[in-house]
Design goal:
Blueprint lengths: L6 E4 L2 E2 L6 E2 L13 E5 L8 E6 L4 E7 L2 E6 L4 E6 L4 E5 L4 E5 L6 E6 L8 E2 L2 H12 L1
Antiparallel strand pairs: 1-9, 2-3, 4-11, 5-10, 5-12, 6-9, 6-11, 7-8, 7-10
The chain binds thymidine-5'-diphosphate.
């Protein structure tokens, strides 16, 4: 799927003087059913995460606190997204090489995923990713 399918989505936000509330329902606010949630936190300054692609996994990435960047690469084009609000998230479709950097101190990166953890779904070698992405384009 091309990079244009990956986009920032705005989530519902219930304003309240007691504090705002945002919710996410699978297949409604994100374009997949949610099978797994994980989060990155206590990320030291200067650290990079990611640097892999997923063959079939759909993901939605939210900066629950602080900020960071997500760089997506579909094998042809690259785009950098800055996430810094808990009511926006980035939808990442399958077969996107990604890495995350520029974490602010105290940043929390929550990821919603369409499947349970499977190492077989990962492509961790960039050359292997480029070859697989080329086959998909042909
Ligand atoms: P990984 O996805 O490689 O992290 P990142 O891309 O952010 O660097 O995962 C790091 C480790 O955590 C890896 O050994 C697998 C494990 N892990 C799980 O066991 N379950 C999960 O849901 C995730 C996301 C990772």
């Amino acid at each position: 799927m091309p990079l244009n399918d990956c986009r920032i989505l705005e989530l519902p936000k219930i304003h309240d003087p007691r504090g705002n509330l945002t919710f996410i329902e699978g297949d409604i606010h994100v374009p997949f059913g949610i099978q797994r949630v994980y989060y990155l936190y206590d990320v030291p300054g200067g650290a990079d995460r990611g640097a892999h692609a997923h063959r079939n996994l759909h993901q939605f990435i939210v900066a629950m606190s602080g900020s960071f960047d997500v760089v997506l690469d579909d094998g042809v084009d690259q785009r950098r997204f800055h996430l810094n609000r808990s009511y926006f998230g980035l939808y990442v479709c399958p077969m996107m090489w990604r890495y995350l950097d520029n974490f602010s101190s105290g940043a929390v990166c929550m990821v919603l995923a369409s499947s349970r953890y499977s190492e077989a779904d990962y492509i961790r070698d960039y050359d292997e990713f480029m070859a697989a992405a080329k086959v998909l384009r042909s």
